[in-house]
Each structure stands twice: as C-alpha cells, then as structure tokens.
Amino acid sequence: MNSSDNDYRRHGPAAWTQLLRVPNLLTVPGDPLAGFVLGCLAVGGASLSRAVAPAATGLLLYCAGLIQNDLADLAEDRRNRPGRPLASGQIRPLAAVAALLACVILAAAAAISAGTASLLVAAVLLAAISAYNFITKRIAVIGPLNMGLCRGMSLMLGASALGWDALAGPAVWIPACLLAFYVAGVTAIAAGETQRRSLRVLRWLPAVTMLTWASVLLVILAFRAPSVVCLILAAGWTASRSRSLAGRPEPEKVQRTVGELLRGLLLVQAAIVVIVPWTGWFLGGFLLMCWPANALLARKFHAS
Q1: Distance, CA of 209 to CA of 200 (rounded, Å)
Q2: For 60, phi and psi rounded to 5 degrees?
Q3: Tally of CB atoms within 10 A around 84
Q4: How many CB atoms lie within 10 A of CB 141?
Q5: What totals of helices (H) and strands (E) does the chain contain, helices first?
Q6: How much is the mean pLDDT over the chain?
Q7: CA–CA separation, 192 and 147 (whole Å)
Q8: What SS3 string covers 270-286?
Q9: Tens digit of pLDDT for each residue in 106-141?
Q10: Alpha carbon distance 231, 243 (integer Å)
Q11: Given pLDDT bands bounded at 50, 70 and 90, which one contains residue 176?
Q12: CA-to-CA distance for 272 and 287, rounded, in angstroms?
C-alpha cells in the first residue's frame, strides 16, 4: 500500500463531509416535514410517521445533487479549485458516481413508498437539480431561481405524501414559493462569494422574503404562540445577517453568512411542525437542537 492510498484513507471521511456540505444537511429534512404539516392543514390531520419517507427522499436527493454538482464541475475545479474533494483526488470520481446512483435509487424507493404523488414530485425535483448543475447555475437570475425551485419542491415533497389535494392547497404552494424565493436570494448572494463586491440591494432579498414568508405563515398557522416566537426570531436573524453584508465584505464573510442564512430555515421549519401536539413538539425541539450543531459544523466546513 503506497503513501497516496494512506492519504486517501486518512482524509476520505473528511472529504465526504466537505463534498456533502454537512452543515446544510441539517436544514434539509425539515422542509418535507414542514410541507407535510402544511398539507395536513389543507386536507386533514395524519400521523407524522407518514412524513418519514418524503423527508428521507428529500435528504437523499439533496446529497445526490451535491455529488452531481462536483462531478459536473470536475474539470473546472481541477483548474481553479484544486482543493475540492474530487479535484484533489481525495474522493475518486468512480466512488462519487456510485454514491450518486445509490442516493437516487434509495430516494426513488422512499418516494414510491410514500405514493404516486411523491414519486412524481421527486422526479421533478431530480430534474430541477440536474438542470441547475448542468445548465442554469451560471445564468444570472435563472440559476438562483432554479436553486430556489429545488428547495420549494422539497417542501412540496412532504405534502405529496398526503396526495394531490394537499399539493393544490394554498397552505402548501404559497409557503413553497416563498421558500423558493428565499433560497434564490441566498443563492444569488453566494454566487459572488469568491471575490469582494458590493451586494447593494441584493443583500436584503433574503430578509424581505423572510418577513413576507413569516407574515403569511402567521396567518396560516393561526398565530399559535410557539410559531409566533420562532417566526419572529427567524425574521430578526435574517435581517441581522443581511445587515452584516454591508460594504464590500470579504469572501470568507459572505461564505459564513450564506450558511447562517440557511440556518435560519430551521426556525421556520420548527415554527410549522410545532403546531402538531406531542410529536410535532418533539420534532420542533429536534430542529432547534440542529441550530447549535449546524453552527459548530459550519466552523469547520463551508456551507456553500
């Protein structure tokens, strides 16, 4: 066994956590969970156990998209970002392809178990992820909107476990659209994270969208006290992070703030799921516990 093999084995796990942007993973399952609860408001209550399959589907497709992204950028990364896990050889392309296929197959199985509507939404989500990675991500406006669509579809994935009627309810598709616009704004900020630049009005897009999103959810969730607290905190957090990007922030500052803006999604997800007694309170508490875990992981791994 040569030294390069030893190096690969030593750095392999850390390389995978970098490739999968592990801080962000904590913010992903909450989207389908929130979508499921909003779907329940549209068509009637159901056990939150039915949300497990769409949550797993969303997380697996998110992982698949991250791996696909680095595979699509491999040639460019070898020129401009040689430290990336695939470009540096810490993860072999064949291993990445195998992991990508495994994620897609497992996601499909989970979606099938949730029903026909979930399978169709998962297929559309996978198509949107692939479109971003191979076509739209370098196109101004369209790329960020495409990324936002992916997260909006993740929320709808949760509602799809309740059938087509849940997807058609405004309690689902309006929050999904606002989630999409929020993530699109964050993505637009992240697009220039490698250079110093003035973000001007762009830095306020997430804050304005969050305020609108929180206001809509307050009405949908009937101003329940725990939800009100979480949504107020989410709006305040996003506004403070947007304000911190004044002037011409350093790339490291932008990268850190992008992760912090995504962390704010945990508060919104918790605000939605806590309206379900007992199980929802437990899941809401879990999502809030993901906040410090995300912060700790973000110190070591970039979220963008």
Answers
A1: 16
A2: -65, -40
A3: 19
A4: 10
A5: 15, 0
A6: 91
A7: 15
A8: HHHHCCCCCHHHHHHHH
A9: 999 999 999 999 999 999 999 999 999 999 999 999
A10: 18
A11: very high
A12: 11
- Tokens of residue 199, six digits: 């973000």
Structure tokens at 131: 């479109």
Distance of alpha carbon 251 from alpha carbon 248, whole angstroms: 9
- Dig out the tokens for 137 from the structure: 């991500």
Contacts 24+ apart (CB under 8 A), 237-245: 237/263, 237/264, 237/267, 238/206, 238/207, 238/210, 238/211, 238/264, 239/207, 239/210, 239/211, 241/206, 241/207, 242/203, 242/204, 242/205, 242/206, 242/207, 243/203, 243/207, 245/189, 245/199, 245/203
**CA 222, CA 156: separation in Å to the nearest integer?**
21
Is 163 strand, coil or helix?
Answer: coil
What six digits make up the tokens of 179?
Answer: 């989630």
Q: The tokens of 240 are what?
A: 């403070």
Q: Is the pLDDT of residue 94 over 80?
A: yes
The one-letter code for the residue type at 93 is: P
Structure tokens at 303: 């979220």
Contact of 175 with 136, CB cutoff 8 Å: no
